[in-house]
Design goal:
three-stranded antiparallel sheet; elongated; single chain; mainly alpha
Length: 247
């Protein structure tokens, strides 16, 4: 998980702790409503779409009326959202994002978890894919950084030409793969923009799919409990604004 994601998750956890404190002060019979309301309120107020998806999932999993929900869909979306959230840059290569999927990379899982929402092409680094590392493991003569250290221009150019040829070859091989294999290869070596594009494509689709689930979960929360949680957040925001003004 990136440092940016860790900071976001810490803030989200802090907000959730505050709502849970309100829940613990509520009447005992309403604890369940406060807990569910806390999750739905968090999903409503957060600006992070992955947090929205995962929090709705948490509320669905703990719902007393889960038999009325499409938990199979929720579980798939939660899993994909979690994998996006856990994605990290390649070691010493911050311009490359890797997604390590938590589910087996089969055709069946691709069709159930990925295919419904993934429609556009995204940028990737052919020389950083599983296919490259498995079939053409890097050697010194394929290392562009090492090549730049060499003083003999002809040798340097030869190495760079070999890398360009290998990149073109691997790119073509990946494009010829079955759809599911191609996707999993690409998602292991995404460009930063490619990762953002893929994540945005998923979150837009997933939130639309979860709208019915969210509406059903909202019906479990009484107006009084929702007002309490809303008031608690407004009071907290007011306190924070006062602290900023005084600072």
């Amino acid at each position: 998980m990136t440092e940016e994601n860790e900071d976001k998750n810490l803030k989200e956890k802090t907000d959730l702790d505050k709502f849970e404190a309100i829940a613990s002060r509520g009447p005992r019979k309403d604890v369940y409503e406060y807990q569910q309301g806390t999750l739905i309120k968090k999903a409503t107020t957060t600006n992070d779409p992955l947090i929205k998806i995962m929090t709705i999932g948490e509320a669905a999993f703990s719902s007393k009326k889960s038999d009325k929900l499409d938990l199979s869909l929720v579980e798939r979306l939660f899993s994909v959202a979690q994998d996006f959230s856990d994605a990290t840059p390649a070691t010493n290569k911050k311009h490359i994002m890797r997604i390590d999927w938590s589910f087996e990379q089969t055709k069946e899982n691709y069709e159930s978890h990925i295919k419904p929402w993934q429609k556009t092409n995204v940028g990737f680094y052919a020389l950083e894919t599983h296919y490259r590392y498995k079939n053409y493991p890097p050697k010194l003569r394929y290392n562009t950084e090492s090549a730049m250290w060499w003083k003999v221009n002809e040798e340097q150019n030869r190495v760079l030409d070999e890398l360009d040829e290998l990149k073109t070859y691997i790119t073509n091989k990946i494009r010829e793969m079955p759809e599911h294999e191609k996707f999993f290869e690409i998602s292991y070596a995404l460009s930063v923009n490619g990762f953002r594009k893929l994540k945005a494509e998923f979150t837009r689709w997933a939130l639309k799919q979860l709208s019915e689930t969210r509406n059903k979960l909202l019906k479990e929360i009484s107006p009084d409990v929702w007002k309490d949680l809303t008031r608690a957040r407004e009071e907290d925001e007011s306190i924070n604004e006062d602290k900023m003004d005084s600072g």
